[in-house]
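Example for tutorial group B:
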């Protein structure tokens, strides 16, 4: 096999070792004997160097015409497309999700990149009449400066691209700290950016742990915005740290997403949706379905059909095209899942299927667990309330749509929800009354597209949205410009 490849930080257009002199091995969660690569265990000095480089690069990048920024970004998209297969294979090796899904993740980065390339020729502001004669009013977007990104392991390239591309097109510069588990996808993304002509220092990457790098990434005064995707617990700390200096922060955090199944639903479709929403990405999506509620008349049939389908899922190494569910990303995540299985049993939920750590043969090489379904889940239970981030879904029951909506909203989170029904009145009522950032009708809670706002209400977010045009509002500030060509002093609200 030879010795594993050593990957470096990207600072000011150069691949450099950490000043710590330390590295760490990134292992495949499906096969711990497979070393995906050796990565820099960076320290605060590396972060400072990266932020300095980004500050310096900002001086020119912000003045580089946006359509020209768009041309570079367009080339990056085309290159990601050309390398899609290799990038996806490497992503499955480091993150574990099945190859069909990592192809989707890379595709999402491609989509986001093309989309934002086009924004280079738009970035529209407004022109509007002035209330005074011979005066002109307009708004323009101005970039913020240096952005710090702390990105998660579950969408190793898509989510960094959601943050990077709108930031870059608006004229900001970036330092990314990828999740410890998935540095390679961000290093690959950065390599493509650099090779396709993004100027040195515009995008920098520093790998290592959040515990060591979070503070220097947030507290450096040159950093104007911190964008974070991860747990609500960490997001709260970031929000507090940023508040002192009024630093912007964009937070995308936990979810406890629900699928509502009405008696009149297309049963087979609702089961397809639940299977994909709950066990796709091994349940490790912020938008994963982790609660399902069925109307009384359909509950039994639905649970039986879902259990049957879950039991037939092929679990294993995601590089095998026939595998349908990969491992948990690491040992800690596996342990969390197993602990919630115990919690669910102890609090009286009915274990319908799954719940076991898969062992023996190739399973011993990684962190595999069975897709798990609990029935008879009630609103008092911890498995109803807490984000698990694994292939565990709890199913409960309701009588009326009003009750279903009340149950859907009975959570501290507000990311995604869905309803399966053939009745347009049910669909529209739920669309209006379920308080989430994302809502689906006759589709699972996962599956967002890049030109639609992504994010959630309540403790899922802090009012911002990623992707779509909304991301431009995160990475720019409005400037209102008044041009008076009357030659005289004109006083609004007075003259
Ligand atoms: C996430 O849920 O963590 O909407 C991101 C989806 C994907 C992105 C999910 N496009 O399912």
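The residue assignment follows.
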């Amino acid at each position: 096999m030879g010795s594993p490849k050593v990957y470096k930080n990207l600072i000011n257009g150069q691949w450099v070792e950490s000043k710590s002199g330390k590295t760490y091995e990134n292992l495949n969660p499906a096969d711990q004997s497979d070393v995906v690569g050796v990565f820099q265990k960076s320290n605060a000095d590396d972060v400072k160097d990266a932020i300095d480089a980004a500050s310096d690069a900002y001086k020119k990048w912000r003045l580089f015409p946006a359509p020209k920024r768009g041309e570079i970004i367009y080339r990056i998209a085309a290159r990601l497309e050309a390398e899609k297969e290799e990038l996806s294979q490497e992503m499955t090796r480091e993150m574990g999700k099945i190859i069909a899904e990592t192809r989707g993740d890379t595709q999402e980065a491609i989509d986001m990149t093309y989309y934002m390339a086009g924004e280079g020729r738009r970035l529209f502001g407004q022109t509007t009449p002035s209330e005074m004669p011979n005066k002109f009013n307009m708004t323009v977007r101005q970039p913020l400066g240096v952005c710090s990104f702390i990105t998660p392991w579950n969408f190793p390239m898509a989510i960094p691209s959601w943050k990077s591309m709108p930031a870059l097109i608006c004229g900001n510069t970036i330092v990314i700290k990828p999740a410890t588990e998935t540095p390679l996808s961000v290093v690959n993304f950065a390599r493509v950016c650099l090779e396709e002509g993004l100027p040195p220092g515009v995008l920098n990457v520093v790998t290592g742990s959040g515990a060591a790098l979070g503070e220097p990434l947030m507290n450096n005064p040159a950093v104007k915005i911190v964008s974070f995707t991860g747990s609500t617990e960490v997001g709260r700390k970031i929000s507090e740290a940023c508040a002192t200096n009024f630093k912007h922060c964009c937070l995308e955090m936990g979810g406890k997403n629900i699928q509502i199944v009405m008696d009149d639903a297309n049963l087979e479709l609702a089961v397809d949706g639940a299977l994909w929403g709950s066990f796709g990405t091994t349940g490790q999506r912020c938008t994963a379905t982790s609660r399902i509620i069925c109307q009384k008349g359909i509950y039994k049939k639905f649970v039986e059909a879902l259990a049957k389908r879950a039991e037939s899922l092929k679990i294993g190494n995601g590089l095998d095209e026939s595998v349908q569910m990969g491992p948990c990303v690491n040992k800690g995540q596996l342990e969390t899942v197993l602990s919630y299985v115990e919690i669910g049993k102890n609090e009286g939920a009915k274990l319908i299927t799954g719940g076991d750590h898969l062992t023996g043969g190739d399973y011993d090489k990684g962190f595999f667990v069975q897709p798990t379904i609990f029935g008879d889940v009630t609103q008092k239970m911890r498995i109803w309330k807490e984000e698990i981030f694994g292939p565990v879904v709890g199913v409960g029951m309701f009588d009326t749509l009003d009750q279903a909506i009340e149950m859907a909203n009975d959570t501290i989170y507000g990311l995604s929800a869905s309803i399966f029904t053939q009745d347009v009145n049910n669909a529209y009522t739920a669309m209006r009354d379920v308080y989430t950032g994302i809502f689906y009708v006759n589709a699972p809670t996962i599956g967002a597209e890049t030109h639609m706002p992504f994010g959630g209400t309540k403790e899922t977010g802090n009012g911002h949205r990623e992707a779509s045009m909304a991301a431009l509002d995160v990475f720019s500030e409005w400037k209102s410009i008044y041009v008076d060509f009357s030659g005289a002093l004109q006083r609004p609200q007075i003259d």
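Residues 13 and 200 are 4 Å apart (CA to CA). Compare this with the pattern of hydrophobic and polar residues in the output above.
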